[in-house]
Write a structure and sequence with these properties.
CATH architecture: Alpha-Beta Barrel
Distance between the termini: 5 Å
Structural class: alpha/beta
Shape: globular
CATH superfamily: Aldolase class I
Bound molecules: phosphoenolpyruvate
CATH topology: TIM Barrel
Number of helices: 9
Order of helices and strands: EEHEHEHHEHHEHEHEH
Number of domains: 1
Number of strands: 8
Strand order of the largest sheet: 2-1-8-7-6-5-4-3
CATH class: Alpha Beta
Largest sheet: 8 strands, parallel
Strand content: 5-15%
Length: about 250
């Protein structure tokens, strides 16, 4: 039974927006799976260069990252305030690629989340353990540590993304993912437990989306590779609509 509206988030990373996402702004919306849907939320996270064209095509957009400070000496960065200024409604915070390649710490991620909330943007905050951490039996401790840094009393979305499943083709089983999602939910403040959406991310594809989305504590997905292929993304959206219609 789905008590929270599903959110399907397309993370295009450093790739051009799929051409199909930019057409049909005023035409047949069913031809463009990235368009807003009536029963589920669909949000795309393009590069900053494609934000405007995606908005012009009628898509709901988010940024892939944002700096916590409003302005200053941060070469190459863009602040949450600036992202809000160009029309972003969502922002990813703490994606593992940012934590790994840009050295973002739990404290940096928390500061980004606070800055996004101040700008009235909705943060989708990524947490998850590496393969090494999982193999050492530390997966739950890592997730607890990452969560503890966050303003969990606020209206945020959590994305549980085990790092070993991102872009690798290895998905957490539905049972593994559900177990971790239930743990995450239990660690939220009591009055946020029923309201906070927890997405799963890590090699979500057309053929595993339905089973994952059927889990009671999985409220959507953050999708990388498969979201760049309109036919695959359309199948994932269809799975989300089916699960929603049945609940
Ligand atoms: C991601 O980038 O957040 C992600 C989950 O990627 P993929 O779906 O390709 O594993």
């Amino acid at each position: 039974m789905k008590s929270r509206r599903l959110l399907l988030a397309a993370n295009w990373k450093m790739n051009a927006a799929p051409k199909q996402a930019l057409v049909n702004a005023h035409g047949d919306r069913s031809l463009n799976p990235y368009h807003p849907h009536s029963d589920i939320d669909v949000v795309v996270f393009p590069t900053v260069l494609d934000l405007r064209s995606c908005m012009d095509a009628g898509l709901v957009v988010g940024a892939q990252c944002g700096h916590a400070e409003a302005l200053g000496a941060h070469t190459g960065d863009i602040s949450m305030a600036m992202l809000k200024g160009v029309g972003c409604r969502y922002v990813l915070c703490g994606h593992s690629e940012r934590r790994t390649h840009h050295g973002e710490t739990d404290a940096d991620v928390a500061a980004q989340v606070v800055a996004a909330l101040e700008q009235k943007m909705h943060p989708v905050v990524c947490i998850g353990e590496t393969l090494e951490e999982r193999e050492k039996g530390h997966a739950e401790d890592v997730v607890k540590r990452q969560l503890k840094a966050l303003p969990l009393e606020s209206d945020i979305t959590i994305a549980y993304e085990p790092v070993w499943a991102i872009g690798t083709g290895k998905t957490a089983s539905a049972k593994q993912a559900q177990g971790m999602h239930a743990l995450i939910r239990s660690l939220l403040p009591e009055d946020r437990q029923e309201k906070t959406r927890i997405l799963y991310g890590g090699s979500v594809k057309a053929d595993n989306a339905e089973e994952l989305l059927r889990q009671p504590d999985i409220d959507g997905a953050l999708i990388g590779g498969a979201s760049l292929k309109p036919e695959d993304f359309a199948q994932i959206v269809k799975a989300g609509e089916m699960v929603t219609a049945e609940s």
